[in-house]
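Data card: per-record layout.
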Amino acid sequence: MLLVAESSSLIYLPFLSGIMALILAIIHIFSGKLLFLKGIPRNAWLSIGSGVSVAYIFVHILPELSEAQETVNQATEQVLGFLEHHVYLVALLGMSSFYGLEKAALRSRNRNQKAGNGDVTEPEIFWLHIAFFAVYNALIGYLLVHREEPGLLSLLLFFLAMALHFVVNDYGLRENHKHIYDHVGRWILAAAIIAGWAIGIGTEIDKNSLALLFAFLAGGVVLNALKEELPENRESRFWAFALGAAIYATLLIAI
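The structure for this 255-residue chain is written out next.
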């Protein structure tokens, strides 16, 4: 009976992952309508969402990447033997890439303000930002289909963490880019999730490459979550961040 139940869940997982990809896309399209999230001090639900996504990375993903690191080392021993920590270097690359993007956006907003063009990014920075986040969203859509740990429970945990993470990301992107994000950006990012899922349905990569994709995602999630919490002018709520992290970490450990 257990074998039949597992086989049945495997059959329906692609369908479920497609539903989840659609929901994540809808989050990008409609999260701007959640007016209660706006304002200073930062809404507690945004901090809770950041805490959940960071907890997912540190409690669920990084331990799996630690195991995958051994496999990656063995597979690349002859070609890239001089690199001992491939997975963690890719995580660092993910974090550094999004840190650079955020700094570019802030500088662009400052330049526009000084030029009297309003508190919004310049067009070229907007497109750079959206291009990177489109790839990021496509990666998340792809990983809905292919994860380090297969199965329904793994899919649900990943989906919940990314759904809350997308609300936080969407809020930050809207703050940087204002109306152009609503008119263009959110639609591109929503489409990127569906495109990533579709690529995942049609293709499959080896376990080592999958570990590297998750590593890049881990670095990006940590940076994108913390950059929204740390600025003093946001008046973020530490208790809410800690609560979200503690609850999700407890859930991950319990199951």
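Known properties of this structure: Confidence is low (pLDDT under 50) at residues 1-9. Helices lie at 2-30, 44-75, 86-114, 123-145, 152-177, 179-202, 207-229, 238-254.

See the next section for split statistics.
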